[in-house]
Amino acid sequence: MAAVFQQGVARALSDPTLKLAIDRTTVTAERKRAAALADYPQFAAARERGTAIKDHVVANLDHYLDEFERNATASGAVVHWAADADEACRIVLGICRGAGARRVTRAKSMLGEEIGLPHALEEAGIERVETDLAEHIVQLAGETPSHIVWPALHKTREQVSALFKAAHRVPHEADTVEAMVESARRELRDRFLSAEVGISGANFLIADSGAVCTVTNEGNAELTTTPPRVHVVTAGIEKLVPSLAHAFAMLRLLVRSATGADLTQYTTFHCGPKRPGDRDGPEEFHIVLVDNGRSRMLRDAGLREMLRCIRCGACMNHCVVYRQIGGHAYGGTYPGPMGAVLTPALEGVDKARDLPHACTLNGRCQEVCPVGIPLPTLLRGWRDRSWKEGLVPRGVRSGLGLWRFAAERPWLYRLGTAAAVRAMRLFRRGGWIGRMPFAGAWTRYRDLPAPAGRTFMEQLRDRERGR
Ligand code: SF4
User: Which of 167, 242, 391, 401 has the most CB atoms around it within 10 Å of its CB?
Assistant: First the structure.
């Protein structure tokens, strides 16, 4: 993955259209979140409560999982347990085959991406129809989501327009957002009605009722889960909350942090299959509870806090690294700061060692996280582990060893920095360094400010001498 990450970064940094697309959405998201919080003076208290709810659930996960299974079963759902991604896909495919499904609709679910469900469905010869507008764009482009809330954030509306014109059966004419939305609606509507199975994720699983809560702005989750004969929910085991009141406490945090709105357009609680007398709803309702490394995180004091994550995306909207490279460069399902913590946990730090290092540790992600996850601390923990496991490249280890040797000998350190500053000045052009030996990784994409004047130690010495 190290090479994948570096190649992804190089590709992203040399793509000006990508930067434009990222800026358009993240700047708007940042502004809307700030406005929403300005109107919600109780945010700090809500954040503390949300953190306490998630910590309580994580500490008592076995209890709440049992309670959820009992209540969901009592309401007519069939609860399945999947230890890993393969087992989760096998269960979902088994349900689809049992329903004789040739076509399934899917509402956006990052857990589905995590377990590789889109690929598994295609391999099984089952047509997959993504119904979320952004996921529809991503599917047409043959790509993967680049953001957990806005999967097509990497595309400009001009690119989307071209994509729709090429792929839709009745292409739109006017290049307006309304015309594009109408075009997607035309394209998707009959597929909603002809799918045998609808697959959704879950924003929250409510233990005391066995209900599943989903939030969307397009109503596509409702159209995915109501008309088909079978509804399948795939959800991580950490999605639990004790009761409806707790779900509402979390929704206040989730929606404001994700989109800057007070509430999404659609907040739906799915509770069992269609009952006698109901006019619509699925005849079968399955819930697949997926572990896929979460129990391991629960046992690990250095990662447990990550199980609080409610997938709002605020950390990536405010991340200086994500805003330069976008989501695809990270290589895993989850990008940004939360992805840099989660991907090594899900795929192994040996495969994702670069991600925790692609961080300035400025702490902005922790500041905006609605459940106070100490992301910089967790990232430092991964750096520490990768050092202890000998995963840091030999060149970096030797460089740090040399630096440490010099840092422990102040006279040598002063000599070394004075020589380095003088050497850097040789490459200075108008206050900037555009090219310099050993600094190619930096100067390939940006100039390095030349050292200004004299070193700190030289200035300090002069000051002490009263100059
Ligand atoms: S880590 Fe925090 S800010 Fe990032 S997605 Fe999760 S809950 Fe949101």
Answer: 242
Dist CA 73 CA 447 (whole Å):
61
DSSP string, 63-90: HHHHHHHHHHHHTT-EEEEESSHHHHHH
**Interval between CA 370 and ligand 1 midpoint (Å):** 7
Q: Is the pLDDT of residue 467 over 70?
A: no
Return d(Cα 43, Cα 183) in angstroms, integer.
39
441 confidence band (pLDDT: 50, 70, 90): confident
Give the contacts of 160 (CB within 8 A, at least 6 positions apart): 137, 152, 180
Q: Which atom of ligand 1 is nearest to the CA of 341?
A: 1
Residue 2: per-residue pLDDT: 62
The ligand 1 atom nearest the CA atom of 148: 5
Closest CA to 117 of 190, 199, 23: 199
Q: Where are the domains of the chain?
A: 40-294, 395-464
Q: Is 321 helix (H, G, I), strand (E, B) or coil?
A: coil
Nearest CA owner, ligand 1 atom 4:
315
Under the banding of pLDDT at 50, 70 and 90, the label for residue 359 is: very high
β-strand partners of 165: none
Question: 466 — alpha (psi -120 to 50), left (phi > 0) or beta?
Answer: left
Chain centre distance of CA 156: 20
The span from the CA of 72 to the CA of 80, in Å, is 11
What the block records as the tokens of 223 is 């159209």
How many whole angstroms separate alpha carbon 326 and alpha carbon 420? 34
Q: Which residues line ligand 1 (CB under 6 A)?
A: 257, 309-315, 338, 368-371, 373
Ligand 1 atom closest to the Cα of residue 313 is 5
Which position has the token pair 């739109």? 172
- Nearest CA-CA partner of 196 in 285, 92, 94, 99: 99
Q: Looking at domain 40-294, does it have CATH number 3.60.15.10?
A: no
Q: Which residue shows structure tokens 């469905």? A: 121
Average pLDDT, the chain: 94
